[in-house]
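Re: How this chain folds, sequence and tokenised backbone to follow
Notation: Tokens come from a learned vocabulary of local backbone shapes, not from coordinates.
Start of record: The labelled sequence and token lines come straight after this line.
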Amino acid sequence: MSVCGEREQLGSNAVENGTIYRHPYCARFISSKQRFCGLMAKAGHSFCVHHLPTEQSEYIFAFCPKCKTKIASDRVDAHLRKCPVRLKEQQITNEIYFWKDINSAKETVVDKTVSLRELSGTQLALLLDKISQAEPKCSSYLSRRSSSSHDDGKTMHSVHVPQRTSESEALQRVAIAEAVQKVRDVFDLSTNSALVELCSGRAYLSAEIMKTWPFSKLLLVDRRSHRFKADRFLRHQSELRRLLIDIKDLDLYKVSLLNKSEVTIVGKHLCGEATDFALKCALSYLKDSTVTFRGLAIAPCCHHACKWSSFVNTPFLETLGFSETDFGYLIRMTSWATTLSTGCTSHGFSSDFAIHTEDMDACRTLSSNDKLRVGRYVKLILNTARVLWCKERGFDVSLEEYTNVWVTPENQLILVR
């Protein structure tokens, strides 16, 4: 007899993990919560309508497409009329700063997904040759960080990485906070100074910056809500507003909080195409705005999540010989820079790879060091394309290593003045 069947017979005497089953209530034990279901059992049954076996249930259940709540299928329409997630989305779409896909591709394009295993030895050798020729053209745009003696031997794959995770994140926030001073010619915080953090998360980057430079206004942008936010003490230091919106739909300078303000924009680890959305959001619509742009500091990451359709400077990649298909392979290679050991510090990679031209999984023949260097070079090429896109719009732009590679392999920062 099943556990549920035994519980039906025992009634109020049924016990599971020390929890007593109460007869009028549902007999379903929820292991994740270590208790019985708290709903009343359906008349004549031992389970509530949600936990009735399929053959005994007269309901067909579905999930709300917005909040994922489990409800009867015939009540989905009624639920949607009062669904809090849908109502919040509807409220955002009515705001003046909402413009659907303003910072993304104008046309809906389905990006092709490719695998490095599809590359033959000949194709891989040709792609690596393009990368090796492009790297010297891009390295001049990167201000490298000089390694110090205390950095020796520290790698992201050390046994102490779990203990150093919070320390690493704190070091990144401090380094970006220091870089904010570089993007402002004169760091004079007036009553109209505003700090905007894109993909803010819990806003601890803003909290770090506000320790040194207390901006009078603070705008936090993220597409979802977070627990344990720094808002609880930031709201006492400045006029704070948080927007739950995707950057691709944000017309930033129409937010009323920024009207006639001196705006500084920051972002820590904007994943993949979020960096491209952020650059367009921050720099494309300044001429029609009433704000004074003072600077931008963005740390890109997760280049494997970039897309050809939303990348800001595909023409530059084409001048280097990379096609849309090549781009799919390039973003896959960027993961080599973060998933392999970061102990190698030399620059440049050898061209005498032992590649078998008939091997359809030729990437296996590359050494770990070669993969690591290739991954770093591809990240540099993609970030350089973004820097040149900003330069074409008349901004003073630099690409810097804002922290050491042992702190994070994603240690490049785009500074716009």
In short: The chain has two domains: 3-59, 116-416. Confidence is low (pLDDT under 50) at residues 1-13, 148-163, 342-360. The CA atoms of residues 264 and 294 lie 5 Å apart.
